[in-house]
TrEMBL record, chains A, B:
Listed name of the protein: Magnesium transporter MgtE
Protein keywords: CBS domain, Cell membrane, Magnesium, Membrane, Metal-binding, Transmembrane, Transmembrane helix, Transport
Subunit structure: Homodimer.
Major subcellular site: membrane
Molecular function GO terms recorded: magnesium ion transmembrane transporter activity; metal ion binding
Pfam families, per the entry: CBS, MgtE, MgtE_N
């Protein structure tokens, strides 16, 4: 059942576009799913894609536009007139339309909005543009089905038929009072199982989860996941129902957040894909490599500060990579667990207990590793008794230190309102490299007395 | 609106449980949302939690059970009789019930199933247990609303009222032929807007996305996301409609996959949370640390193999941490981008072009970093002209090597049916550490001629 985009098919489309054979293209593509059209558009050149957008039905192209990568969409919209863009927005849900408007240059935003024929639709879009990014207000759509608590079921079904035409998916019917304040909800299923003469007020469910326009996106996602909701109504400061958020927006949000965190942990500083340009990929990757480089040079300067090592204990230098790798790995493990716990809101209890637990954990891991290293260093690398002891004590200390840095840096960042995910990956690795090597030689100096 | 679980509240509940004050507990908790009950149960001792499960309404507790961490649930189910477990299963959707059965010891599975009163429900659960884990068959529920294409709308509404009682959420009404083969779908919204005398065959949408019982979970998630579906029907080999998968299951699946990948990248080998026991956390973390340790010891043996360094070029040793850190960071970046691309199915085009692109990218990053290192090593660390050149050429080579390893290992694993995510994090870091240091000294040897 799944559509597979082949090179042959793309070629065929490109030839038809070059011939400007609009009829053949319409015949071929108008029955496609918008997600497949979007996949096709991403493979075409911008002017070819723009040609198709203008050619095909707007109910299809408006949805396909929403599925595109922001950059691809930008190039297409650049080649469209305000009137043509407005036509696409006309077919979109208000939340999608507002997202598109926000992506446009400021000087044409107003022009596009003015060209939207449906005035209510335009007013709704303008309202959505006023909410802060990252809040429920910016995420919600104005499209929803609402009924008054005083109506009968029959009246309600009539009214719903009218409203439902503008709403792609009816999850719940929201019940409001005279002032538009949210009172409860009805499911479509409930409507099917009661008599037409009953009043809404007799059958609606007064308990309804909701968020306000100012609720943070992350909280919206958490609530919808926790309570398994497929849609959640949004109210303003006065409790008036102003919109709703559906699960598909949340699925996209969860996915994007997970990818952002993953890339951040891998030291990639902006959202990139494997197929992006070399320049964009360099911009995303070079900053963290530079920070890692500074750490490496810092480590070099630490080592050069312990001259005695080169003369008297060169064996210690062999274990620098071991110390560094272990410090890095422990730090990444600790920070990943904490960052994930913070994201899922499962980090509870007091900080001292967490400190003790993490230290205990590090001590156990450290002892296991140190024991192996003790034997191997002594027998395979012929380190002296004292050298082996120094290496092992340093290893355990470095593991504990790295675990504590990995645990506390994210918690402290989070307490100060900074995304703890920035503390993962290269950041933790680099600082642990430097601290680890410093600790190693300080402990060796203390024990060996150089 | 959100429920906040406080220590005071938990205390109050624990006191009531100790007093066995069932009435007060029922009064207090029966109006709660199941997700909040689950949060409470996770904070209680197993015997307290079990007491509550047995006490409260099964429509509430059966849903709460499904929200619990598997370990917490296991402890509670251990304290319940087959009959009591069967009572909970009676209230669950078939997919959830099958998941619970699969978690039970094999010797009581049959007993529990036998104790389920509703025979159809029990048969459906047994059917689901037969599908392979990780397939649509194991993910789907048997609950759905289906109608025959020959019926009238009025007849359809009557039949739906009957069926809808067992279905928590009606997303779509599936249309089947006489043999039960999937023909298309109707939305509840469509039913509201047509006359009762029309036939289903006149109004149903014959184009419907579906998967088969053997479709892989990841493909199901990809299809539902791509086409923004809230539910998808599942058919058997003959095209007969046998179940449906809803978006809430997919949300959970996406979240779990993202967390698994994230932990794998951080070198954590099994699913753990910050609040798990020290033993469990050690088991999850120690294996990767041991692999990192082997890498560190490997590096030590490489360094010890280049005796001339200690005697003639000790300066080179200062830059081992820099080489190692850079190799690790580049490898992690490259692998993260490829792993994410593979997961999203956006890695296309031929492998040679990707190789050239990744090399070019690495060359640019390498040149930038090498230039800075060239200056700093020469002026701050007083390396000789040839030493600086060696360090920089090694650095560029190591960056290219690390990028290629980071790019190709995941692609090769993926081609061989292995989850490419295992190649991220410590695995890439460790192998890059070792290859990086080896490359560094080989190049230095070549240039400096020791």
């Amino acid at each position: 059942m799944q559509f597979q985009l082949t090179d042959d098919f793309i070629n065929q489309i490109e030839i038809l576009i070059a011939k400007k054979d609009g009829n053949a293209l319409r015949e071929l593509l108008n029955e496609f799913h918008f997600a497949d059209i979007a996949e096709l558009l991403e493979e075409l050149k911008s002017d070819e894609a723009t040609y198709l957008i203008k050619l095909l039905e707007t109910d299809l192209t408006s949805e396909a536009l929403m599925e595109l990568d922001e950059e691809v969409r930008e190039k297409i919209l650049d080649r469209m007139s305000p009137k043509e863009i407005a036509n696409e927005l006309e077919e979109m849900d208000t939340d999608d339309a507002a997202d598109i408007i926000a992506e446009l240059d400021e000087n044409i935003q107003k022009e596009v909005i003015d060209k939207i024929k449906d005035e209510d639709h335009a007013a709704d879009i303008v309202e959505l543009l006023n909410y802060d990014e990252d809040t429920a207000g910016a995420l919600m759509a104005k499209e929803l089905v609402k009924v008054k608590e005083t109506w009968t079921i029959a009246g309600c079904v009539r009214e719903m038929r009218r409203q439902a035409k503008n709403v792609t998916r009816v999850h719940s019917i929201y019940v409001v009072d005279k002032e538009g304040k949210l009172k409860g909800r009805l499911s479509l299923k409930d409507l099917l199982t009661v008599s037409g003469k009953a009043h809404i007020s007799d059958i609606y469910i007064p308990k309804v989860d909701y968020v306000t326009v100012n609720t943070d996106n992350e909280d919206v996602a958490r609530i919808m996941q926790k309570y398994d909701l497929e849609a959640i109504p949004v109210v303003d400061e006065n409790g008036v129902l102003v919109g709703r958020i559906t699960i598909d927006d949340i699925v996209d949000f969860i996915k994007e957040e997970a990818e952002k965190d993953y890339q951040m942990a891998a030291g990639i500083s902006q959202d990139v894909e494997a197929d992006d340009s070399v320049l964009k990929l360099t911009r995303a990757r070079l900053p963290w490599l530079m920070i890692g480089m500074m750490g490496g040079l810092g480590a070099a300067s630490i080592i050069s500060g312990f001259e005695a090592i080169f003369l008297t204990y060169p064996n210690l230098l062999l274990f620098v990579p071991l110390i560094q790798a272990t410090a890095g790995n422990v730090g990444v493990q600790s920070s990943a667990i904490v960052v994930q716990g913070l994201a899922n809101d499962t980090i509870k209890g007091n900080i001292i207990r967490r400190l003790l637990k993490e230290s205990l954990l590090a001590l156990i891991n450290g002892l296991c590793i140190a024991l192996v290293v003790l034997l191997i260093s002594h027998f395979a690398f012929h380190t002296t008794y004292l050298e082996s002891i120094s290496i092992c004590i340093a290893l355990i200390s470095v593991i504990i230190l790295a675990a504590l840095i990995g645990t506390f840096v994210p918690i402290i960042l989070d307490k100060n309102g900074i995304d703890p995910a920035v503390a993962t990956g290269p950041f933790i690795t680099t600082s642990n490299d430097v601290f680890g090597i410093l600790t190693y030689f300080l402990i060796a100096k203390l024990i060996l007395g150089f």
